[in-house]
Amino acid sequence: MFSYLKRKLGLLSLANKMNNDSDSEPEGPVHSELSNKLKNNIAIISDIVGVSEDFVIREFKFGLHKQIDAALLFFDGLVKSEEINHGIIRPLMYESHLLTTVSPSCFEDIRALKETLLAIGEVTEANTIEELMEALFSGNAILLLDGNATVLMIDVRGWASRGVEESKTEQSVRGPHESFTENIRFNTALLRRRIQDPDLLIEYLVLGKKSRTAVCIAYLKTVAHPELVEELKRRLNRIDIDAVLESGYIEQLIEDDPFSPFATVGNSERPDRIAARVLEGRVAILVDTTPYVLTVPMLFLEGFQAPEDYYSRPYYSSIVRLLRFVAFFITLLSPALYVALTTYHVELIPTSLFITMVAAEEGTPFPAVLEAIGMGLVFEILREGGARLPTIIGPALSIVGALIIGDLAVSAGLVSAPMIIVVALTAVSSFLVIGHTDAITLMRLILVLLAGVLGAFGIAIGLLGMLIHLTSLRSFGVPYLTPWAPSVKTDLKDSMIRAPLWKMILRPRLITEFDSQREAFRLKPHPPENP
Questions:
Q1: Could you tell me the CA-to-CA distances from 192 to 174, 211, 279, 295 in Å, in that order?
Q2: Model pTM?
Q3: What pLDDT shows up at residue 92?
Q4: Percentage of the chain surpassing pLDDT 70?
Q5: Same domain membership, residue 453 and residue 336
Q6: Is residue 393 part of a domain?
Q7: With the CA atoms of 36, 40, 43 and 45 taken in that order, what torsion angle do they form, in degrees rounded to the nearest 10?
Q8: Total domains in the fold of the chain
Q9: Among 299, 194, 327, which residue's Cα sits nearest to residue 510?
């Protein structure tokens, strides 16, 4: 008891100390003005950065008579060396010496220097240490002149990055094979390439006190709802965290219901998919250092849609989409239905099938509910192991492991053969609805437990609870089950089936109310009229 009280008192004193420390901190950022002495500025910046091998301070002289002292500061690896050499150092040290018709004092004016000698596209000025350090850590080069309290921030960012490749998680047979990369500038270019409209706005902000991660939101100003854009900005601006290392950080901090197993923020690494969602009125969130782009709002239906649905003819696309819905119910319900039928409702099984199942289950030591949970756990282990192992041996482990473990489990009498069939069908079906895999895994386990306790009545209770939760769920104010609940007849053309493109004239009504018509009327193809 005394140790418990001591631990509680220690936590209270630690909390009081943290509160006192937070009260003593200044309310806003400190904007330290720069000095007009080059040596002083270098000393201040070096003291902030500390001893770092990749921090470069290049001091040199330039001007007609080499009378001006200057320094170029940058982090090696974050900048393009060619632009440093040919766009900054060469013009200042060599080409300035060739200019004999200008006044020597012209080189001392840092604004004139920016306008005449620097062969770089983007050059901005700064007067505070805070602005300078933010630009330095983001990959800019900093030019300081002796006698000037203003510095130039020169955009020469160019770190090693992966090129545009094919998506590994959202592959398709027909359609573009490009995917986003970890470079946010490449990603905005891929999006701008598909939406070449001046209404496409891309707004930048920085998140993460330590990581200073670049984040941008992209939307069509004439299509996206202004309240949606403002709500997203409000949620992003309230994020106060040390680092944003992946878009998943932001997804967990802006979603509507953090306790729901269903995702309310969409994500994709395919530019065509993100462009299609932006054209419907959604807002995209691009995060530097990750190829996954977020979109809001997200609907439950998006987990069953694929970009390839719109590149193929509507008949086959509709059949494939219906197969995804069938696969969703198979992977969600098949283990629970098997447990309920074999445990409580054997009279519903045909006699010949029941005899075969009883013969297969003879000698198995565990009840059906434990078999279903155990085999489901084995499947998740194999899937996770296959995903984490190198690409060369990952698929081999999944296939060989599933075959060997399943065969040995049946041979040893630990699991019945029908249970292996049910788990295999569940596993294959889950690959058709990747967008809801996490939620399905959790709901499947809950339904199996309810089926083991209450049979079909337990399954009905579980499905009713899931339906109530889905109907109450919102994504940035938009009902999650749109266009079914509430019912929007015009949007049903792209729900369980995919109508021809010439029939989908309007954008989703509950996502946007502006510029709702996305194509002209009477676009149905027809043969030419007889002359």
A1: 22, 26, 12, 16
A2: 0.81
A3: 81
A4: 87
A5: yes
A6: yes
A7: -20
A8: 3
A9: 299
Alpha-carbon span 4 to 276, nearest angstrom: 57
**Which residues lie below 8 Å from residue 452, measured CB to CB, with a gap of 6+?**
339, 343, 367, 368, 369, 372, 458
Of 362, 379, 164, residue with least CA distance to 272: 164
Q: Is residue 307 assigned to a domain?
A: no
Q: Which of 434, 451, 479 is the last residue of a domain?
A: 479
Same domain, 219 and 269: yes
Indicate if 288 and 329 belong to the same structural domain: no
Can you tell me the distance from the alpha carbon of 247 to that of 233, in angstroms, rounded to the nearest whole number? Answer: 15
Cα gap 151→144, rounded to integer Å: 5
Domain extent at residue 447: 314-479
403, 279: one domain: no
Q: Which two tokens stand for residue 366?
A: 């565990």
Contact 266, 236 (CB under 8 A): no
Same domain for 320 and 293: no
190 and 259 in a single domain? The answer is: yes
Co-location of 246 and 319 in the same domain: no
Please answer whether residues 30 and 130 qualify as being in contact, where contact means their C-beta atoms are separated by less than 8 angstroms: yes
* Cβ burial, residue 355 (10 Å; 0-12/13-18/19+): exposed
What confidence tens digit (pLDDT) does each residue in 184-204 have? 988 999 999 999 989 999 999
User: Which residue has 């030591």 as its token pair?
Assistant: 365
Q: How far apart are CA 448 and CA 337, in angstroms?
A: 8
31 within a domain of the structure (yes/no): no
What is d(CA 222, CA 229) in angstroms, rounded to the nearest whole number?
12
CA distance 223 to 283: 10
Degrees (nearest 5) of the Cα angle 224, 226, 228?
A: 75
Q: What pLDDT does 318 receive?
A: 93
